[in-house]
Amino acid sequence: MTDSYIAQIAAEIRSAVPPESLPSGDTDELFLIYAVLALAKGIDVEARDIHNAWAAWMSTKDPEHESIVPYADLPAEVRREDDAYLAAVRRVASRLGREGR
Questions:
Q1: SS3 content of the chain, % helix, strand, coil (to 5)
Q2: Alpha-carbon torsion 48, 55, 29, 18, what sign?
Q3: How many domains does the chain have?
Q4: How far apart are CA 73 and CA 38, in angstroms?
Q5: Burial class (CB in 10 A: 0-12, 13-18, 19+), 18
Q6: What whole-number distance in Å separates Cα of residue 88 and Cα of residue 18?
Q7: Measured between alpha carbons, how far apart are the two ends of the chain, in Å?
Q8: Is the pTM of this model over 0.85?
Q9: Which residue range forms the structural domain that includes residue 63?
Q10: Is 82 helix (H, G, I), strand (E, B) or coil?
Q11: 53-56 long-range CB contacts below 8 Å, 24 or more apart?
């Protein structure tokens, strides 16, 4: 990933996610989408936003993935998988808000 401001935000979000929660493979595009959420929604980002971002990314990787459904249709245990990402995006968004971005 380049050192653009959006890539830096994406890297910060990735580093805020516990390593055991990170998916395998190339996730640069996923975290770029999460960076956009941090900038656009700030701390008001919701779990469904995280899921929608993931679903958009996964649609390019595995369009038949069983979890590419509306957030409300996911089982509770699958919804909980978004919690680490939600917390990371909110944490970074909070910092960005304090810096006036």
A1: 70, 0, 30
A2: positive
A3: 1
A4: 24
A5: exposed
A6: 9
A7: 21
A8: yes
A9: 5-99
A10: coil
A11: 54/30, 54/82, 54/85
Nearest-angstrom CA–CA distance, 84 and 11: 15
- Give me the mean pLDDT over the 63-91 stretch: 96
Q: With contact defined as beta carbons under 8 Å apart, do 92 and 16 qualify? A: yes
Q: Which pLDDT value is given to residue 62?
A: 94
Tokens of 99: 């810096």
For the cut 60, the answer to whether the pLDDT of residue 11 exceeds it is yes
**Sole residue written with tokens 């996923």:** 30
Residues 36-75 as b/e (b if ≥16 CB within 10 A, e otherwise) read ebbeeebeebebbbbbebbbebbeeeeeeeebeeebeebe
